[in-house]
Design brief:
Blueprint (H helix, E strand, L loop, with lengths): L2 H19 L2 E9 L7 H15 L4 E4 L11 E3 L5 E6 L9 E3 L22 E3 L4 E18 L10 E5 L3 E5 L7 E19 L7 E8 L6 H29 L1
Antiparallel strand pairs: 1-10, 2-11, 3-4, 4-7, 5-6, 7-10, 7-11, 8-9, 8-10
Helix pairs in contact: 1-3
């Protein structure tokens, strides 16, 4: 390996290492005990997340309006951007699967978030998990988490693989309300799994991810290395031509 090739290689490795070290950025806001709104902290976090997610491609938000009511094991997004599956007991309408109302009107079991959604639908899977799969790799994921209470436990995780296993912890409200939690990642991933153990009945709404991924850092690295290689070969060819001419 020549000195120039070594320098190029070192530059590429440094670029990949730097992006990997700062891969995930979190956007989070909590409105503890608030129902049915407004949710200033959650809304602010969502706005910041949406702006960041849009830098990676077209953003797709699902408020469950076009999804069928009731409990199903597997679902397909209406616009073909992915699928999701639930692994949890069916506790009935207002708790499990897709509901359009709250059981007691308090919102502690989950509720719809956002204006303009006449369906008032939201997704619940207490005591279990849901896995969201994307048709194209995504660099972002976010959602409103409603009705969470610390009395039922402080664990709610989002796990995914962006080339290495990753786990993020979603904050839990004391008295229900809304928590917006989203993240962006310079490394793409193809699915996320949300897991909330215990007996908390809660809801999920406004699931968002980008659907047109930009090149990975590793892809950029290969592109840079390729361009550098082409440039280096052209440089050698010019030198060889000049040497023969002299």
């Amino acid at each position: 390996m020549s000195r120039i090739q070594y320098l190029i290689f070192a530059l590429v490795v440094s670029f990949v290492s730097a992006t990997s070290a700062q891969a995930v950025t979190i956007y989070s806001g909590q409105d503890d005990g608030v129902f049915p709104g407004p949710f200033p902290n959650s809304n602010a976090a969502r706005a910041q997340f949406l702006a960041a997610a849009a830098t990676f491609g077209t953003v797709s938000t699902h408020n469950f309006a076009a999804q069928p009511l009731g409990y199903q094991t597997n679902y397909t997004w209406f616009d073909g951007t992915g699928t999701y599956s639930i692994s949890a007991a069916n506790l009935g309408d207002g708790f499990s699967g897709i509901s359009n109302h709250t059981v007691d009107g308090s919102g502690l079991a989950g509720f719809n978030v956002g204006a303009g959604d006449a369906s008032h639908k939201w997704l619940g899977f207490p005591g279990g998990s849901a896995t969201f799969n994307f048709t194209t790799p995504s660099h972002s994921f976010g959602a409103d988490f409603t009705g969470l209470q610390t009395v039922f436990g402080t664990t709610l995780t989002i796990s995914f693989d962006d080339g290495a296993p990753q786990v993020l912890n979603v904050p839990i409200n004391v008295n229900g309300g809304d928590v917006y939690f989203g993240f962006t990642n310079v490394n793409a991933f193809t699915s996320v799994t949300i897991y909330r153990p215990g007996g908390d009945a809660w809801g999920l709404d406004n699931v968002t991810f980008d659907v047109s991924a930009v090149p990975e850092p590793s892809t950029w690295a290969m592109m840079i290395l390729g361009f550098a290689g082409v440039g280096f070969m052209a440089y050698r060819r010019r030198n060889q031509t000049a040497a023969l001419a002299s």
